[in-house]
Amino acid sequence: MNDTRNDRPLRLALILAAFSALGPFTVDMYLPALPEIMNDYGTNASTIQVSLTASLLGLGLGQMVMGPLSDSYGRRNPLMIAMVLYILSSIGCAVAPNVETFILLRFIQGGAASAGLVIARAIARDRYSGVEMTKFISLLTMISNVAPLLSPNAGSAVTAYASWSGVFVFLGLLGILLTVITTRGLEESLPPAKRVPSSLGAFMRNYNHLLRDRTFMGYALVNGILFAGIFAFVAATPFIYQNIFGVSPQVFSILFAMNGLAIMIGSQIVKRAAGRLFEPLILRLGLTLSVIATSAILIAVLANGSLATIVGSTFLFAVSIGMIGPVCVTLAMESHGQHAGSASAILGTLQFSLGAVISPLVGIAGEHSALPFGVVIFATSVLAFAAYVLLIRKARTRSGGFKNADTKPYFEQGD
């Protein structure tokens, strides 16, 4: 009987991780093919990177729509509609006649993929709270970050036997699989009695309440700014690793995948520490690690350091993301269960919108310079730390939260 109960969180985490993985697959899988797409459309690196920006904007803005819809109409039906749209836009990307159409379809594809991300977090909040939610979100993060391990390698494998358009055919097939999973394996977690009104006015009031919550926005900004650093890495490394350091697409895929492994390690640390280690302390440790790691990246770039130094430093930065993400999501959503979809939407929208703004900056000096990347990724850590101090710590100190919490021992007895 115990085994059955213990299997349920894992089964749910596997299903939700599959939907969470759709975002990384949408963003990452075509990265090894960026130079080929650039050549086929007869354009330049900056224009092709706009397609990445478009998908990130779609992933961000789409969540602002899908989150409230899932609060009003339940989790399953909006997810089903989004999967159908994802399938159609993926096939459209594969046959896009020009780069402008390709970029537009990438935006639509990102918007459809956003449903998996925002609704997965909302379902987690429907079912869990407190330390159990921290552990579940950590498990979900750990499993879903298999996607960055697999997606570039899957992209390289597809382009080894087909043109880059084969990547988007593959993504369309993935959308079909997730539609089947939604139909057969995902139960509704939000009963009609707990749903909120579907009017535009209600949506706006919910968002206004969340945006005015200083502590919630602090966690959302810390999480969003640091994830923007990951997107800067995503946009920059195909050109830094392949054009500056001369690695092959296959080696790039392996180096890129290491960061997915690093996020898994960070989330596993949180999963084991939750309930024993004070959660704000985990957040502070993660922020400190991110500042140290990104400082090392900037120094390596300025000093024309080795590939190994940059790879190692970005690995540590990704570990810090794995530590910070689950804690920020849990603490941000803890007191907003009634509007879990809207709260999840703001968390996700900040991640992808900030990523969309920041990612083009890494290419402003051309495809043979790593300096903008070093500056941008260091700035994300500094800004996230500043958001923590100004919004979270100040608000907690003013309310006495940190005073009370900091008198607790850092380690508490586990079960």
TrEMBL record:
GO terms for cellular component: plasma membrane. The chain crosses the membrane at residues 12-33, 78-97, 103-124, 161-181, 216-241, 247-270, 282-303, 309-333, 345-365, 371-391. It holds the Pfam family MFS_1. InterPro entries: Efflux_drug-R_Bcr/CmlA, MFS, MFS_dom, MFS_trans_sf, Sugar_transporter_CS. PROSITE patterns: MFS, SUGAR_TRANSPORT_1. Its main location: membrane. Keywords: Cell membrane, Membrane, Transmembrane, Transmembrane helix, Transport. Residues 12-398 form the Major facilitator superfamily (MFS) profile domain. One of its GO terms (biological process) is xenobiotic detoxification by transmembrane export across the plasma membrane. GO terms for molecular function: xenobiotic transmembrane transporter activity. The keyword Membrane applies. It is found in: Cell membrane. It is a multi-pass membrane protein. Coiled coil: none annotated. Belongs to the major facilitator superfamily. Bcr/CmlA family. NCBIfam families: efflux_Bcr_CflA. This is Bcr/CflA family efflux transporter. It comes from Paenibacillus phyllosphaerae. The lineage of its organism: Bacteria, Bacillati, Bacillota, Bacilli, Bacillales.
